[in-house]
Amino acid sequence: MLSDQDYIEKLPIITHYFVPIIDVTFNKGFSTSLKMTYQKSIWNETPSMKSYTLSNFRQLPQIQQLSEEKQFEMEVVGNVLPFKANNYVVEQLIDWNNIPNDPIFVLTFPQKGMLKPEHYDMMADALKNNADKKEITKIANEIRLQLNPHPAGQMELNVPTLNDGTKLYGMQHKYKETCLFFPSQSQTCHAYCSFCFRWPQFVGMDEMKFAMQEGEQLVQYVREHPEITDVLFTGGDPMIMKAKIFSKYIDAIIDANLPNLKTIRIGTKALAYWPYKFLTDSDSQEMLQVFKKITESGLHLAFMAHFNHLNELSTPAVKDAIKEVRKTGAQIRTQSPLLTHINDDAEMWAKMWTKQVELGCIPYYMFVVRDTGAQHYFGISLIKAHEIFKKAYSSVSGIARTVRGPSMSATPGKVHVMGTTNVNDQKVIVLRFIQGRNPDWVDVPFFAKYDENAIWLDDLKPISDEKFFFEEGMIEIQKNKLN
Ligand SMILES: *Cc1c(COP(=O)(O)O)cnc(C)c1O
Protein backbone atom coordinates (compact mmCIF):
# COMPACT_ATOMS: atom_id res chain seq x y z
CA MET A 1 0.00 0.00 0.00
CA LEU A 2 1.20 3.51 -0.76
CA SER A 3 1.07 6.05 2.06
CA ASP A 4 -0.52 9.42 1.25
CA GLN A 5 2.91 10.99 1.05
CA ASP A 6 4.13 8.26 -1.29
CA TYR A 7 1.01 8.65 -3.32
CA ILE A 8 1.50 12.38 -3.77
CA GLU A 9 5.14 11.86 -4.70
CA LYS A 10 4.17 9.19 -7.18
CA LEU A 11 1.21 10.99 -8.69
CA PRO A 12 3.11 12.21 -11.74
CA ILE A 13 4.32 8.67 -12.37
CA ILE A 14 0.87 7.21 -11.91
CA THR A 15 -0.86 9.69 -14.22
CA HIS A 16 1.96 9.33 -16.70
CA TYR A 17 1.32 5.67 -17.14
CA PHE A 18 -2.40 5.84 -17.17
CA VAL A 19 -4.02 4.88 -20.41
CA PRO A 20 -7.74 4.20 -20.55
CA ILE A 21 -8.92 0.62 -20.81
CA ILE A 22 -9.59 -0.31 -24.37
CA ASP A 23 -11.45 -3.50 -25.12
CA VAL A 24 -10.64 -4.96 -28.47
CA THR A 25 -12.98 -7.65 -29.62
CA PHE A 26 -11.76 -9.84 -32.40
CA ASN A 27 -12.45 -13.11 -34.07
CA LYS A 28 -10.27 -16.06 -33.31
CA GLY A 29 -9.25 -17.93 -36.43
CA PHE A 30 -11.74 -18.01 -39.25
CA SER A 31 -14.82 -18.61 -37.18
CA THR A 32 -16.96 -15.60 -36.40
CA SER A 33 -18.60 -17.38 -33.49
CA LEU A 34 -15.44 -17.57 -31.38
CA LYS A 35 -15.14 -14.06 -30.01
CA MET A 36 -12.40 -13.24 -27.54
CA THR A 37 -11.76 -10.06 -25.67
CA TYR A 38 -8.27 -8.75 -25.28
CA GLN A 39 -7.84 -6.03 -22.73
CA LYS A 40 -5.10 -3.46 -23.02
CA SER A 41 -3.13 -3.06 -19.83
CA ILE A 42 -3.85 -0.22 -17.48
CA TRP A 43 -0.52 1.44 -16.80
CA ASN A 44 -1.64 2.75 -13.47
CA GLU A 45 -0.57 2.53 -9.86
CA THR A 46 0.40 -1.14 -10.02
CA PRO A 47 0.43 -2.48 -13.55
CA SER A 48 0.73 -6.22 -13.52
CA MET A 49 2.88 -8.14 -15.90
CA LYS A 50 1.25 -10.39 -18.42
CA SER A 51 3.53 -12.83 -20.17
CA TYR A 52 3.16 -13.98 -23.75
CA THR A 53 4.73 -17.28 -24.71
CA LEU A 54 4.26 -20.08 -27.20
CA SER A 55 1.03 -21.13 -25.48
CA ASN A 56 -0.84 -17.82 -25.71
CA PHE A 57 0.84 -15.47 -28.20
CA ARG A 58 -1.86 -16.12 -30.80
CA GLN A 59 -4.34 -14.39 -28.49
CA LEU A 60 -2.69 -11.05 -29.13
CA PRO A 61 -4.71 -9.00 -31.64
CA GLN A 62 -1.41 -7.62 -32.91
CA ILE A 63 -0.37 -11.17 -33.78
CA GLN A 64 -3.74 -11.99 -35.32
CA GLN A 65 -3.12 -9.16 -37.76
CA LEU A 66 -0.27 -11.21 -39.17
CA SER A 67 -0.81 -13.95 -41.74
CA GLU A 68 -1.36 -17.52 -40.55
CA GLU A 69 1.90 -18.39 -42.33
CA LYS A 70 3.82 -15.87 -40.24
CA GLN A 71 2.15 -17.09 -37.04
CA PHE A 72 3.09 -20.65 -37.90
CA GLU A 73 6.71 -19.62 -38.50
CA MET A 74 6.79 -18.12 -35.02
CA GLU A 75 5.40 -21.33 -33.60
CA VAL A 76 8.03 -23.43 -35.35
CA VAL A 77 10.92 -21.33 -34.05
CA GLY A 78 9.32 -20.86 -30.63
CA ASN A 79 9.34 -24.62 -30.18
CA VAL A 80 13.15 -24.64 -30.35
CA LEU A 81 14.37 -21.31 -28.99
CA PRO A 82 13.11 -19.58 -25.83
CA PHE A 83 10.22 -17.17 -26.32
CA LYS A 84 8.63 -14.87 -23.79
CA ALA A 85 7.35 -11.33 -24.23
CA ASN A 86 5.15 -9.28 -21.93
CA ASN A 87 2.48 -6.59 -22.05
CA TYR A 88 4.99 -3.71 -21.61
CA VAL A 89 7.08 -4.96 -24.53
CA VAL A 90 3.99 -5.55 -26.68
CA GLU A 91 2.10 -2.37 -25.85
CA GLN A 92 4.84 0.17 -25.23
CA LEU A 93 8.00 -0.90 -27.03
CA ILE A 94 7.00 -2.59 -30.28
CA ASP A 95 5.72 -0.46 -33.13
CA TRP A 96 3.18 -2.82 -34.67
CA ASN A 97 2.99 -0.64 -37.79
CA ASN A 98 6.57 -1.63 -38.49
CA ILE A 99 6.27 -5.43 -38.68
CA PRO A 100 8.34 -7.48 -39.49
CA ASN A 101 11.21 -4.97 -39.22
CA ASP A 102 10.55 -3.46 -35.80
CA PRO A 103 13.75 -4.07 -33.78
CA ILE A 104 11.96 -4.91 -30.53
CA PHE A 105 9.66 -7.32 -32.37
CA VAL A 106 12.71 -9.15 -33.74
CA LEU A 107 14.30 -8.96 -30.30
CA THR A 108 11.42 -10.68 -28.51
CA PHE A 109 9.34 -12.67 -31.04
CA PRO A 110 10.66 -15.73 -32.92
CA GLN A 111 11.57 -15.14 -36.57
CA LYS A 112 11.86 -17.79 -39.26
CA GLY A 113 15.52 -17.03 -40.05
CA MET A 114 16.56 -17.78 -36.47
CA LEU A 115 16.60 -21.48 -37.41
CA LYS A 116 18.73 -22.79 -40.23
CA PRO A 117 16.51 -24.06 -43.09
CA GLU A 118 17.18 -27.75 -42.35
CA HIS A 119 16.31 -27.27 -38.67
CA TYR A 120 13.29 -25.17 -39.52
CA ASP A 121 11.96 -27.86 -41.86
CA MET A 122 12.44 -30.59 -39.25
CA MET A 123 10.28 -28.77 -36.73
CA ALA A 124 7.78 -27.47 -39.29
CA ASP A 125 7.18 -31.01 -40.58
CA ALA A 126 6.69 -32.33 -37.06
CA LEU A 127 4.10 -29.65 -36.28
CA LYS A 128 2.29 -30.11 -39.60
CA ASN A 129 2.09 -33.84 -38.93
CA ASN A 130 0.65 -33.18 -35.48
CA ALA A 131 3.53 -34.94 -33.79
CA ASP A 132 2.94 -35.49 -30.07
CA LYS A 133 4.59 -33.43 -27.38
CA LYS A 134 7.27 -35.99 -26.67
CA GLU A 135 8.30 -36.18 -30.31
CA ILE A 136 8.41 -32.39 -30.60
CA THR A 137 10.62 -32.10 -27.52
CA LYS A 138 12.92 -34.77 -28.92
CA ILE A 139 13.31 -32.94 -32.22
CA ALA A 140 13.75 -29.62 -30.42
CA ASN A 141 16.54 -31.04 -28.26
CA GLU A 142 18.23 -32.62 -31.27
CA ILE A 143 18.34 -29.21 -32.94
CA ARG A 144 19.41 -27.42 -29.76
CA LEU A 145 22.39 -29.71 -29.27
CA GLN A 146 23.63 -28.62 -32.70
CA LEU A 147 23.58 -24.95 -31.64
CA ASN A 148 26.66 -25.05 -29.39
CA PRO A 149 24.66 -24.63 -26.18
CA HIS A 150 27.64 -23.93 -23.93
CA PRO A 151 30.26 -21.80 -25.65
CA ALA A 152 33.47 -20.34 -24.20
CA GLY A 153 34.20 -23.24 -21.85
CA GLN A 154 31.55 -22.21 -19.36
CA MET A 155 30.93 -25.70 -18.03
CA GLU A 156 34.45 -27.13 -18.12
CA LEU A 157 36.60 -24.10 -17.37
CA ASN A 158 34.68 -21.54 -15.33
CA VAL A 159 33.02 -23.52 -12.53
CA PRO A 160 34.92 -22.74 -9.31
CA THR A 161 35.68 -25.00 -6.33
CA LEU A 162 35.79 -24.25 -2.60
CA ASN A 163 38.93 -25.20 -0.65
CA ASP A 164 37.01 -28.20 0.75
CA GLY A 165 36.46 -29.48 -2.80
CA THR A 166 32.82 -28.45 -3.21
CA LYS A 167 32.09 -27.55 -6.83
CA LEU A 168 30.03 -24.38 -7.13
CA TYR A 169 27.82 -24.91 -10.16
CA GLY A 170 25.97 -21.68 -9.41
CA MET A 171 29.09 -19.61 -9.97
CA GLN A 172 31.58 -18.82 -12.71
CA HIS A 173 35.03 -17.43 -12.16
CA LYS A 174 36.92 -16.63 -15.32
CA TYR A 175 38.64 -13.29 -14.76
CA LYS A 176 40.59 -12.75 -11.56
CA GLU A 177 38.72 -9.78 -10.10
CA THR A 178 35.14 -10.71 -10.90
CA CYS A 179 33.07 -13.77 -10.09
CA LEU A 180 29.62 -14.43 -11.48
CA PHE A 181 26.84 -15.62 -9.20
CA PHE A 182 23.63 -17.27 -10.47
CA PRO A 183 21.03 -17.28 -7.68
CA SER A 184 18.63 -20.16 -8.18
CA GLN A 185 15.67 -17.77 -8.03
CA SER A 186 16.89 -15.65 -10.93
CA GLN A 187 16.83 -18.24 -13.68
CA THR A 188 14.27 -16.41 -15.80
CA CYS A 189 13.68 -12.89 -17.19
CA HIS A 190 10.77 -10.46 -17.67
CA ALA A 191 11.03 -11.24 -21.39
CA TYR A 192 13.54 -13.24 -23.40
CA CYS A 193 15.95 -11.75 -25.92
CA SER A 194 15.90 -13.85 -29.07
CA PHE A 195 19.72 -13.62 -29.33
CA CYS A 196 20.40 -14.62 -25.70
CA PHE A 197 23.54 -16.72 -25.30
CA ARG A 198 22.12 -18.26 -22.13
CA TRP A 199 19.18 -19.63 -24.10
CA PRO A 200 19.67 -23.29 -23.02
CA GLN A 201 18.66 -22.32 -19.47
CA PHE A 202 15.24 -21.26 -20.68
CA VAL A 203 14.26 -24.23 -22.80
CA GLY A 204 14.40 -26.92 -20.15
CA MET A 205 17.89 -28.25 -20.85
CA ASP A 206 18.08 -28.38 -17.08
CA GLU A 207 21.31 -30.25 -16.69
CA MET A 208 22.97 -27.24 -18.26
CA LYS A 209 21.52 -24.70 -15.88
CA PHE A 210 23.74 -22.75 -13.54
CA ALA A 211 22.09 -22.03 -10.22
CA MET A 212 22.90 -21.76 -6.56
CA GLN A 213 20.60 -21.78 -3.60
CA GLU A 214 22.60 -20.17 -0.84
CA GLY A 215 24.61 -17.03 -0.41
CA GLU A 216 26.87 -18.69 2.16
CA GLN A 217 28.94 -20.56 -0.38
CA LEU A 218 29.35 -17.39 -2.38
CA VAL A 219 30.61 -15.57 0.70
CA GLN A 220 32.95 -18.45 1.50
CA TYR A 221 34.36 -18.44 -2.02
CA VAL A 222 34.98 -14.68 -2.01
CA ARG A 223 36.63 -15.05 1.41
CA GLU A 224 38.95 -17.74 0.04
CA HIS A 225 39.86 -15.58 -2.97
CA PRO A 226 41.29 -12.22 -1.91
CA GLU A 227 41.85 -11.31 -5.58
CA ILE A 228 38.07 -11.00 -6.09
CA THR A 229 36.83 -7.40 -5.88
CA ASP A 230 33.54 -7.76 -7.78
CA VAL A 231 30.58 -10.10 -7.42
CA LEU A 232 28.29 -10.02 -10.43
CA PHE A 233 24.72 -11.19 -9.86
CA THR A 234 23.38 -12.66 -13.06
CA GLY A 235 20.97 -15.33 -14.34
CA GLY A 236 18.49 -15.11 -16.05
CA ASP A 237 17.83 -11.74 -14.58
CA PRO A 238 18.47 -11.18 -10.86
CA MET A 239 15.86 -8.41 -10.92
CA ILE A 240 13.19 -11.05 -11.44
CA MET A 241 13.75 -11.90 -7.77
CA LYS A 242 11.51 -10.48 -5.10
CA ALA A 243 13.30 -7.86 -3.02
CA LYS A 244 12.96 -10.15 0.03
CA ILE A 245 14.94 -12.92 -1.62
CA PHE A 246 17.53 -10.65 -3.23
CA SER A 247 18.11 -8.94 0.13
CA LYS A 248 18.96 -12.28 1.77
CA TYR A 249 21.92 -12.67 -0.56
CA ILE A 250 22.93 -9.05 -0.12
CA ASP A 251 22.69 -9.24 3.68
CA ALA A 252 24.91 -12.34 3.68
CA ILE A 253 27.52 -10.42 1.69
CA ILE A 254 27.33 -7.19 3.68
CA ASP A 255 27.31 -8.97 7.05
CA ALA A 256 30.40 -10.98 6.05
CA ASN A 257 32.33 -7.72 5.79
CA LEU A 258 34.67 -9.07 3.14
CA PRO A 259 37.69 -6.76 2.96
CA ASN A 260 38.50 -7.59 -0.68
CA LEU A 261 34.97 -7.01 -1.98
CA LYS A 262 34.46 -3.51 -3.44
CA THR A 263 31.66 -3.81 -5.97
CA ILE A 264 28.37 -5.60 -6.34
CA ARG A 265 27.23 -5.76 -9.93
CA ILE A 266 23.74 -6.63 -11.12
CA GLY A 267 23.45 -7.78 -14.73
CA THR A 268 19.87 -7.02 -15.72
CA LYS A 269 17.47 -6.18 -18.49
CA ALA A 270 14.66 -5.14 -16.14
CA LEU A 271 14.95 -1.42 -16.99
CA ALA A 272 14.25 -2.26 -20.62
CA TYR A 273 11.66 -5.03 -20.19
CA TRP A 274 9.85 -4.17 -16.97
CA PRO A 275 10.79 -0.76 -15.49
CA TYR A 276 7.85 -1.04 -13.07
CA LYS A 277 10.14 -3.26 -11.00
CA PHE A 278 11.58 0.04 -9.72
CA LEU A 279 8.41 2.14 -9.87
CA THR A 280 5.16 0.46 -8.95
CA ASP A 281 5.65 -3.28 -8.30
CA SER A 282 4.70 -4.22 -4.77
CA ASP A 283 8.36 -4.71 -3.84
CA SER A 284 9.75 -1.76 -5.83
CA GLN A 285 10.45 0.44 -2.82
CA GLU A 286 11.92 -2.47 -0.91
CA MET A 287 14.23 -3.27 -3.84
CA LEU A 288 15.43 0.33 -3.99
CA GLN A 289 16.06 0.14 -0.24
CA VAL A 290 18.28 -2.90 -0.80
CA PHE A 291 20.26 -0.88 -3.35
CA LYS A 292 20.63 1.92 -0.81
CA LYS A 293 21.78 -0.53 1.78
CA ILE A 294 24.52 -1.69 -0.57
CA THR A 295 25.78 1.80 -1.36
CA GLU A 296 25.51 2.92 2.27
CA SER A 297 27.59 -0.07 3.35
CA GLY A 298 30.44 1.47 1.34
CA LEU A 299 30.23 -0.98 -1.57
CA HIS A 300 29.90 0.29 -5.11
CA LEU A 301 26.67 -0.83 -6.76
CA ALA A 302 27.26 -1.26 -10.49
CA PHE A 303 23.97 -1.77 -12.26
CA MET A 304 24.91 -3.42 -15.59
CA ALA A 305 21.88 -2.61 -17.72
CA HIS A 306 21.25 -4.31 -21.05
CA PHE A 307 19.81 -2.00 -23.68
CA ASN A 308 19.82 -3.27 -27.24
CA HIS A 309 18.04 -0.39 -28.92
CA LEU A 310 17.24 3.27 -28.49
CA ASN A 311 13.51 2.43 -28.48
CA GLU A 312 13.97 0.74 -25.11
CA LEU A 313 14.97 4.13 -23.68
CA SER A 314 11.96 5.98 -25.04
CA THR A 315 9.12 5.44 -22.56
CA PRO A 316 8.35 7.61 -19.52
CA ALA A 317 8.54 4.47 -17.39
CA VAL A 318 12.15 3.61 -18.25
CA LYS A 319 13.30 7.19 -17.74
CA ASP A 320 11.67 7.34 -14.31
CA ALA A 321 13.01 3.91 -13.38
CA ILE A 322 16.56 5.03 -14.25
CA LYS A 323 16.08 8.05 -11.98
CA GLU A 324 14.86 5.89 -9.10
CA VAL A 325 17.78 3.47 -9.42
CA ARG A 326 20.33 6.30 -9.62
CA LYS A 327 18.85 7.97 -6.55
CA THR A 328 19.99 4.98 -4.48
CA GLY A 329 23.63 5.76 -5.30
CA ALA A 330 23.88 2.99 -7.87
CA GLN A 331 25.79 3.70 -11.05
CA ILE A 332 24.16 2.39 -14.22
CA ARG A 333 26.45 1.08 -16.95
CA THR A 334 25.07 -0.14 -20.25
CA GLN A 335 25.94 -2.93 -22.66
CA SER A 336 24.64 -4.78 -25.68
CA PRO A 337 25.79 -6.99 -28.49
CA LEU A 338 25.73 -5.71 -32.05
CA LEU A 339 22.96 -7.61 -33.83
CA THR A 340 21.93 -7.92 -37.46
CA HIS A 341 18.17 -7.27 -37.85
CA ILE A 342 18.09 -5.32 -34.57
CA ASN A 343 20.81 -2.71 -34.13
CA ASP A 344 23.37 -2.94 -36.98
CA ASP A 345 23.19 0.80 -37.46
CA ALA A 346 25.93 3.23 -36.38
CA GLU A 347 23.61 6.21 -36.12
CA MET A 348 21.30 4.33 -33.80
CA TRP A 349 24.24 3.37 -31.54
CA ALA A 350 25.44 6.97 -31.42
CA LYS A 351 21.94 8.14 -30.48
CA MET A 352 21.58 5.36 -27.93
CA TRP A 353 24.88 6.15 -26.19
CA THR A 354 24.05 9.86 -26.21
CA LYS A 355 20.61 9.17 -24.72
CA GLN A 356 22.15 6.92 -22.08
CA VAL A 357 24.59 9.67 -21.06
CA GLU A 358 21.74 12.17 -20.96
CA LEU A 359 19.88 9.86 -18.57
CA GLY A 360 22.96 9.49 -16.37
CA CYS A 361 24.15 6.08 -17.54
CA ILE A 362 27.70 5.14 -18.60
CA PRO A 363 28.09 3.28 -21.92
CA TYR A 364 30.27 0.27 -21.12
CA TYR A 365 30.48 -2.54 -23.71
CA MET A 366 29.52 -3.30 -27.28
CA PHE A 367 29.76 -7.07 -27.75
CA VAL A 368 30.05 -9.34 -30.75
CA VAL A 369 27.26 -11.94 -30.99
CA ARG A 370 28.47 -15.18 -29.43
CA ASP A 371 29.01 -18.45 -31.24
CA THR A 372 25.83 -20.11 -30.03
CA GLY A 373 22.11 -20.33 -30.80
CA ALA A 374 21.05 -18.19 -33.76
CA GLN A 375 24.51 -16.70 -34.44
CA HIS A 376 23.92 -17.26 -38.17
CA TYR A 377 20.95 -14.88 -37.97
CA PHE A 378 22.33 -12.15 -35.71
CA GLY A 379 26.05 -12.40 -36.49
CA ILE A 380 28.02 -9.57 -38.08
CA SER A 381 31.50 -9.88 -39.58
CA LEU A 382 34.20 -8.52 -37.30
CA ILE A 383 35.22 -6.03 -39.99
CA LYS A 384 31.68 -4.68 -40.31
CA ALA A 385 31.24 -4.64 -36.52
CA HIS A 386 34.33 -2.50 -36.18
CA GLU A 387 33.14 -0.15 -38.94
CA ILE A 388 29.83 0.37 -37.14
CA PHE A 389 31.57 0.89 -33.81
CA LYS A 390 34.07 3.37 -35.25
CA LYS A 391 31.41 5.38 -37.02
CA ALA A 392 29.27 5.62 -33.89
CA TYR A 393 32.17 6.17 -31.47
CA SER A 394 33.72 8.94 -33.54
CA SER A 395 30.44 10.84 -33.65
CA VAL A 396 29.71 11.13 -29.92
CA SER A 397 31.13 13.31 -27.17
CA GLY A 398 34.11 12.04 -25.21
CA ILE A 399 31.74 11.54 -22.27
CA ALA A 400 30.09 8.69 -24.19
CA ARG A 401 33.41 7.18 -25.33
CA THR A 402 33.66 5.16 -22.14
CA VAL A 403 32.23 2.35 -24.24
CA ARG A 404 34.58 -0.41 -25.41
CA GLY A 405 34.12 -2.74 -28.31
CA PRO A 406 33.38 -4.54 -30.39
CA SER A 407 34.43 -7.23 -27.94
CA MET A 408 34.18 -11.02 -28.27
CA SER A 409 33.67 -12.98 -25.04
CA ALA A 410 35.65 -15.96 -26.28
CA THR A 411 37.16 -18.92 -24.42
CA PRO A 412 40.54 -17.24 -23.69
CA GLY A 413 39.04 -13.85 -22.84
CA LYS A 414 37.35 -10.70 -24.02
CA VAL A 415 38.97 -9.86 -27.34
CA HIS A 416 38.63 -6.30 -28.62
CA VAL A 417 38.58 -5.76 -32.39
CA MET A 418 40.58 -2.56 -32.59
CA GLY A 419 40.56 -2.06 -36.34
CA THR A 420 42.54 -2.84 -39.44
CA THR A 421 45.96 -1.72 -40.66
CA ASN A 422 48.90 -2.82 -42.81
CA VAL A 423 51.92 -4.72 -41.55
CA ASN A 424 54.69 -5.29 -44.13
CA ASP A 425 52.21 -4.55 -46.91
CA GLN A 426 49.84 -7.15 -45.55
CA LYS A 427 46.32 -6.11 -44.52
CA VAL A 428 45.66 -7.22 -40.93
CA ILE A 429 43.07 -7.03 -38.17
CA VAL A 430 44.38 -5.53 -34.91
CA LEU A 431 43.18 -7.13 -31.69
CA ARG A 432 43.86 -7.00 -27.96
CA PHE A 433 42.52 -8.65 -24.82
CA ILE A 434 40.34 -6.46 -22.58
CA GLN A 435 40.12 -9.43 -20.20
CA GLY A 436 42.11 -12.64 -20.25
CA ARG A 437 42.07 -15.96 -18.45
CA ASN A 438 45.71 -15.10 -18.00
CA PRO A 439 46.02 -11.42 -16.96
CA ASP A 440 49.39 -11.21 -18.77
CA TRP A 441 47.54 -11.43 -22.08
CA VAL A 442 45.66 -8.18 -21.44
CA ASP A 443 46.44 -5.10 -23.53
CA VAL A 444 49.03 -6.73 -25.80
CA PRO A 445 48.21 -5.78 -29.40
CA PHE A 446 48.22 -8.74 -31.80
CA PHE A 447 47.33 -9.29 -35.42
CA ALA A 448 45.19 -11.63 -37.47
CA LYS A 449 44.95 -12.07 -41.23
CA TYR A 450 42.42 -9.71 -42.76
CA ASP A 451 39.22 -11.69 -43.32
CA GLU A 452 35.94 -10.06 -44.25
CA ASN A 453 33.95 -13.18 -43.45
CA ALA A 454 35.26 -13.86 -39.96
CA ILE A 455 32.53 -13.48 -37.33
CA TRP A 456 34.35 -14.99 -34.32
CA LEU A 457 37.83 -15.47 -32.90
CA ASP A 458 37.91 -19.09 -34.14
CA ASP A 459 37.60 -17.84 -37.73
CA LEU A 460 40.80 -15.77 -37.46
CA LYS A 461 44.32 -16.86 -38.43
CA PRO A 462 47.60 -15.40 -37.16
CA ILE A 463 49.66 -13.50 -39.74
CA SER A 464 52.99 -15.31 -39.51
CA ASP A 465 53.26 -17.91 -36.75
CA GLU A 466 51.13 -21.00 -36.71
CA LYS A 467 49.46 -19.94 -33.51
CA PHE A 468 48.31 -16.83 -31.71
CA PHE A 469 50.53 -15.87 -28.78
CA PHE A 470 48.00 -17.04 -26.20
CA GLU A 471 47.17 -20.44 -27.67
CA GLU A 472 49.91 -22.46 -25.93
CA GLY A 473 48.92 -20.93 -22.61
CA MET A 474 45.26 -21.64 -23.27
CA ILE A 475 46.02 -25.31 -23.94
CA GLU A 476 47.91 -25.45 -20.62
CA ILE A 477 44.95 -23.93 -18.76
CA GLN A 478 42.59 -26.44 -20.35
CA LYS A 479 44.85 -29.36 -19.43
CA ASN A 480 45.17 -28.24 -15.82
CA LYS A 481 41.43 -27.73 -15.42
CA LEU A 482 40.42 -31.01 -16.96
CA ASN A 483 42.89 -33.15 -15.01
C1 LIG B 1 32.58 -9.81 -19.07
C2 LIG B 1 32.78 -10.77 -18.00
C3 LIG B 1 33.14 -10.34 -16.72
C4 LIG B 1 33.33 -8.89 -16.38
O1 LIG B 1 34.34 -8.27 -17.13
P1 LIG B 1 34.62 -6.71 -16.98
O2 LIG B 1 35.52 -6.36 -18.10
O3 LIG B 1 35.25 -6.54 -15.65
O4 LIG B 1 33.29 -6.03 -17.04
C5 LIG B 1 33.35 -11.30 -15.76
N1 LIG B 1 33.21 -12.63 -16.01
C6 LIG B 1 32.88 -13.08 -17.24
C7 LIG B 1 32.77 -14.55 -17.47
C8 LIG B 1 32.64 -12.17 -18.28
O5 LIG B 1 32.30 -12.63 -19.48
From TrEMBL:
Keywords: 4Fe-4S, Iron, Iron-sulfur, Isomerase, Metal-binding, Pyridoxal phosphate, S-adenosyl-L-methionine
CDD domains (UniProt xref): Radical_SAM
Cofactor(s) this protein cannot do without: pyridoxal 5'-phosphate
Positions carrying N6-(pyridoxal phosphate)lysine: 414
EC number(s) on file: 5.4.3.2
Molecular functions (GO terms): 4 iron, 4 sulfur cluster binding; L-lysine 2,3-aminomutase activity; metal ion binding
PANTHER family: L-LYSINE 2,3-AMINOMUTASE AQ_1632-RELATED, LYSINE 2,3-AMINOMUTASE-RELATED
Name of this chain's protein: L-lysine 2,3-aminomutase
Species, as recorded: Candidatus Nitrosomarinus catalinensis
Organism phylogeny: Archaea, Nitrososphaerota, Nitrososphaeria, Nitrosopumilales, Nitrosopumilaceae
Gene behind the chain: ablA
